[in-house]
């Protein structure tokens, strides 16, 4: 099913219209313990949600797990959900990932709508049809592709986000710029202040939308969207056991490593690499890994979903807008990239 992404300044009207297009005998709204206080009160009075049943799970990526998934399934059962019910996911990527998976698996699939409330979810997690949960200490280890009936983007939600969460989403936008064009990349790198990001959100969403429509199940081109994520997911999983970091920060640090490998392995221009790395360092800082962490990070990469057999696969760039898919990395190159990430 093709995803339908709608940007709006009139959320109540838009939501009523899309609900009317979805089969529904009951409506459920999934929130976490942040969005239930910050976001749900803004829409709970909508007439189209008058009989909606609210489900709230614990926030934080560590709770994107089987226990939370089972809690949602139980809420569906106790609330009388059928195959004709509708779920509305109101929240960030954790809510849209887990909620989408819950909807896609309950009674072999019910309709769901995503209303992303973070920048990261707007430009990445809520659209594209990837759903899932973490398992065994690994990111998104269990999941499936399931397209939401609609994704509703309302930039007004961003007013409640702190600077760190804006930066987290901006890392995915930066990735989209690197995959798209020099002009888009330059706009993102040279932005005077993050308060001016709103005009850049739509183009960023369009980059992902074009790629997903061409390759919805990630057999080819969609692998480009994994740029920064082979190292990024390993960094995030490593940090989860120590001092957790936001997903976008992990991706930003992953971009540093994978841009370096792109420069030495696929000819990516070093000037563009260093300019991007400087932007990331100035805005995201660094991750306190040491050489003693390398074996653990490499082991985490061996569990990456992009791999084939024992080969660690990675998306690199030949130049801005030209990805090189399925590049096989050996341990020496990985260690070299980790060294670069630490000392540059």
Automatic annotation (TrEMBL):
GO terms for cellular component: cytoplasm. Coiled coil: none annotated. Its main location: cytoplasm. Pathway: Metabolic intermediate biosynthesis; chorismate biosynthesis; chorismate from D-erythrose 4-phosphate and phosphoenolpyruvate: step 2/7. It is found in: Cytoplasm. Residues 55-166 form the 3-dehydroquinate synthase N-terminal domain. Residues 169-307 form the 3-dehydroquinate synthase C-terminal domain. Its EC number is 4.2.3.4. GO terms for molecular function: 3-dehydroquinate synthase activity; metal ion binding; nucleotide binding. Keywords: Amino-acid biosynthesis, Aromatic amino acid biosynthesis, Cobalt, Cytoplasm, Lyase, Metal-binding, NAD, Nucleotide-binding, Zinc. Its cofactor is Co(2+); NAD(+). One of its GO terms (biological process) is amino acid biosynthetic process. NCBIfam families: aroB (TIGR01357). Catalyzes the conversion of 3-deoxy-D-arabino-heptulosonate 7-phosphate (DAHP) to dehydroquinate (DHQ). This is 3-dehydroquinate synthase. The lineage of its organism: Bacteria, Pseudomonadati, Bacteroidota, Bacteroidia, Bacteroidales.
């Amino acid at each position: 099913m093709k995803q339908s992404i709608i940007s709006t300044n009139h959320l109540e009207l838009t939501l009523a219209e899309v609900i009317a297009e979805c089969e529904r005998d009951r409506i459920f709204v999934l929130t976490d313990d942040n969005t239930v206080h910050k976001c749900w009160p803004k829409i709970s009075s909508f007439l189209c949600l008058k009989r909606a049943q609210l489900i709230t799970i614990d926030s934080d990526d560590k709770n994107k797990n089987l226990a939370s998934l089972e809690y949602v399934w139980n809420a569906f059962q106790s609330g009388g959900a059928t195959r004709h019910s509708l779920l509305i996911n109101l929240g960030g990527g954790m809510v849209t990932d887990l909620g989408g998976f819950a909807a896609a698996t309950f009674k072999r699939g019910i309709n769901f709508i995503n209303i992303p409330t973070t920048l990261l979810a707007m430009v990445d997690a809520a659209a594209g049809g990837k759903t899932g949960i973490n398992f065994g200490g690994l990111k998104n280890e269990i999941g499936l592709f399931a397209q939401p009936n609609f994704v509703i983007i309302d930039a007004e939600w961003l007013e409640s986000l702190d600077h760190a969460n804006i930066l987290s989403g901006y890392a995915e936008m930066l990735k989209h710029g690197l995959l798209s064009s020099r002009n888009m990349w330059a706009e993102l790198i040279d932005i005077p202040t993050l308060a001016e990001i709103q005009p850049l959100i739509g183009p960023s969403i369009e980059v992902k939308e074009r790629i997903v429509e061409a390759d919805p199940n990630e057999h080819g081109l969609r692998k480009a969207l994994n740029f920064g994520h082979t190292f990024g997911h390993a960094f995030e999983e490593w940090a989860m056991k120590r001092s957790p970091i936001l997903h976008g920060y992990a991706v930003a640090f992953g971009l540093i490593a994978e841009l370096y490998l792109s420069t030495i392995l696929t000819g990516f221009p070093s000037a563009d690499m260093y300019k991007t790395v400087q932007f990331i360092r100035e805005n995201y800082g660094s991750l306190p890994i040491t050489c003693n962490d390398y074996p653990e990070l490499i082991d985490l990469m061996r569990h990456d979903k992009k791999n084939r057999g024992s080969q660690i696969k990675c998306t690199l760039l030949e130049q801005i807008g030209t990805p090189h898919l399925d590049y096989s990395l050996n341990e020496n190159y990985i260690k070299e990239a980790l060294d670069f990430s630490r000392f540059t």
